[in-house]
Amino acid sequence: MCKFFVVGDVTVDQMYFVEELPEPGGERTALRTVMEPGGAGGTVATVLARFPGSVTIATRVGTGPFAELALRNVREAGVETDLVQVDEHLQTSSVTLLITPDTQRTMISAAGASRNLDSAELHFEDVAACNALVISAYSLVGGRQREYAVRALEHARRAGLTTFIDMGSGAMNALQDRVLSLIREIDYVLMNVKELYALTGEHTISDAVSGLKSQGIEHLVVKVGAMGSIVITPELTELVEALDIDDVVDSTGAGDYYTAAFAYGIMNGYDLLHAARFGNVAGGLNTTVIGAQGYRIDAQTLRQRAAEIDWVGCEPAR
Q1: Which of 146, 172, 235, 263 is most exposed by smallest CB count within 10 Å?
Q2: Which residues are within 8 A (CB) of 80 and not within 5 positions of it... i.e. 6 or more apart?
Q3: Where do the domains of the chain lie?
Q4: Which class does domain 3-20+32-308 fall in?
């Protein structure tokens, strides 16, 4: 069984569902409020472990009830938490989300303890014991967490792990020109269209992809929302259709579900198109419930729902 090493935040997501955003200085009454575990690292690790799989997460939390909530699903899923660090001074990372009826999210993030993840506690053997590294680009933004993430990537390359990185709009804005040098040697780069344009400065997918290929990024997955995702390699550029979802409730965590399912597919011998189909299914299903980790997907559901969609199938490349 493949073993994954995940580097990324675990957070408490404070979610407020509102009819519309308030004006500056104004006030709105929420239709509903929810507090749930979130964070890219926590969500990817939880989903991978639910398939099930062997997963270790590297992250840092504060003390008290926020830490317990942020790690609730990680622990319930069976993720190994030996490398979770506890910060005695900083609060567990949190995100406040204002969600409008069209499922658009306005977010305020507080990095908290995550940015203090200490690389001195990471050892080569921790990474080398795994088969794949999945990293959130937010881990590369700054602070001691950046040092940890860079060192984890170095260890992964040395040990021959397959590497995945999922970008994020906030990370893109923070990293700017440093992004390409950091991700050039990663095996699989995943992002959405907005992040693709921000990274390249282009305004069409074809021009943006061409620019990334010239920079040496050869395996790229671009999530295009309701259309699905585009798989790009030196040999092909192909749209993989999305799972048809009638009732989208909340898109929080959908991209992280995609990343986890895609990585699961690749590491279990499926080709790129099939792995992208898995990603589309997992991301789509998670929009039908509230919360970043709300949909309890398993490998059987993933395969069955992918098989229901009318497409040219790709058998596992075992």
Answers
A1: 235
A2: 54, 55, 56, 57
A3: 3-20+32-308
A4: alpha beta
